[in-house]
Specification:
alpha/beta, four-stranded antiparallel β-sheet, 12 strands, 16% strand
């Protein structure tokens, strides 16, 4: 085909394309654009929902949901998700899906295991002797048997490094940068290879861990000082934190699976190697303030400029005073870090007029134990709200999904 024929063919194709475009535009222009029919919002729906909410149902939901621990990645995690799925279907939601995710989690050894996580005071010069002190393996159950059931993990902080470290103890208040700067620059303590003990609160846990890492610490112990958590009478005589209660939680700075940062942990997602996931590099362990008192009361060094309300003299360290000068602190962490299945439960009440627009209501479902407050108080309320929505569906569907 010569050049003239090629040019003619191109011109014909352009003319035909323009003609088709004009034709489509003409047809679309004659079509009347219509929004889907809708209805006026029910201004009284809020009061109807509130009047229908039954606090006894919320209380009963809470009792049912907290009979067993539901730690992420365990069998009870799955059974809890299945219970919510069935409840929502019984309440009248249109569709309820169980969405699985395989995520990197960390679980501690059983509290009765010889390999359990712990903090000790020991004498390195006498390796055959028993530790002078060993942190509690469980919190005081106050004669409540459900607090002793298997599946409730001992206190731990997820994603800690594992292994064993030992060294002199240094009290670092909240482990803020200004606390560590004061100890290094004013008091003159070299924090490298030391074991730090810090109060919870003040700044997030992951910031404390990051700060301890940057100053070269070998390990970090966190405890809830009564000044922050139990300035009133402690449980069971009051609502203050008991002396054996220790924090649980994650020490990651980001949300979600650390192997798929920013993405859902589905089969198609690219996963980092664990070594590249930015997990904490030092050992971290939580204890109650009764155990913290055993450690802090034996310390030497300058009087700490910032203190809590334990009935002791807070000192900076490093190390212990006589007759414990030869003793050191040891932290042992044998938690298992591996991938486990966990589940989102997604329930849908389809909208009548604009079903592709969504109103989202929810909360997280897994807990570090029984989770009566965090998060199950929210789940108990959510199940009552979904019951009310299911009842109102009988009178008509919502505008949106």
């Amino acid at each position: 085909m010569d050049r003239r024929h090629v040019v003619c063919a191109v011109v014909v194709m352009l003319v035909v394309g323009i003609g088709i475009g004009i034709g489509i535009g003409f047809v679309v222009g004659r079509m009347k654009a219509e929004n889907p029919e809708s209805r006026e919002a029910d201004e009284g729906i809020r009061d109807r929902i509130m009047n229908e909410i039954n606090s006894n149902n919320i209380r009963n939901n809470l009792k049912i949901l907290t009979t067993k621990p539901h730690v992420a990645g365990t069998e009870n995690d799955l059974s809890g998700a299945q219970f919510i799925q069935k409840t929502w279907l019984d309440q009248g939601l249109d569709t309820v899906k169980l969405l699985p995710y395989k995520v990197l989690l960390q679980h501690p050894p059983h509290p009765t295991s010889p390999d359990r996580n712990k903090v000790e005071i020991f004498n390195p010069g006498d390796p055959s002797s028993k530790p002078l002190f060993e942190s509690a393996s469980r919190e005081d159950p106050f004669n409540e048997e459900e607090l002793l059931q298997d599946g409730i993990p001992p206190p731990y902080l997820a994603y800690s490094a594992t292994g064993e470290v030992q060294g002199d103890l240094v009290f670092v208040h909240y482990c803020r940068v200004k606390d560590l700067n004061y100890l290094t620059n004013t008091v003159g303590i070299n924090l490298k290879d030391k074991i730090l003990i810090a109060r919870m609160s003040g700044i997030p846990r992951f910031n404390k861990v990051k700060n301890a890492e940057e100053y070269g610490a070998a390990g970090l112990i966190l405890y809830p000082d009564p000044e922050d958590y139990s300035s009133w009478e402690s449980y069971p005589n009051g609502t203050g934190l008991p002396s054996t209660a220790a924090p649980r939680g994650s020490i990651l700075s980001e949300l979600g699976d650390p192997l798929t940062p920013g993405y859902p942990s589905k089969d198609y997602a690219y996963r980092l190697n664990v070594s590249d996931a930015g997990l904490p590099k030092i050992i971290v362990h939580p204890i109650g303030y009764a155990d913290a008192k055993e450690l802090l009361s034996k310390m030497e060094g300058e009087q700490a400029p910032r203190t809590g309300t334990l009935d002791i003299e807070y000192r900076t360290g490093p190390g212990f005073k006589a007759p414990y000068k030869d003793h050191r602190v040891r932290i042992v962490i044998n938690s298992n870090t591996s991938q486990h299945w966990t589940y989102n439960v997604m329930g849908y009440l389809n909208g009548e007029f604009e079903p592709d627009r969504y109103i989202l209501i929810g909360n997280h479902r897994d807990a570090w134990g029984l989770g009566s407050v965090d998060p199950t108080s929210g789940t108990a309320c959510l199940l009552e709200l979904s019951r009310v929505f299911g009842k109102l569906k009988q009178e008509g569907r919502p505008i949106y999904t």
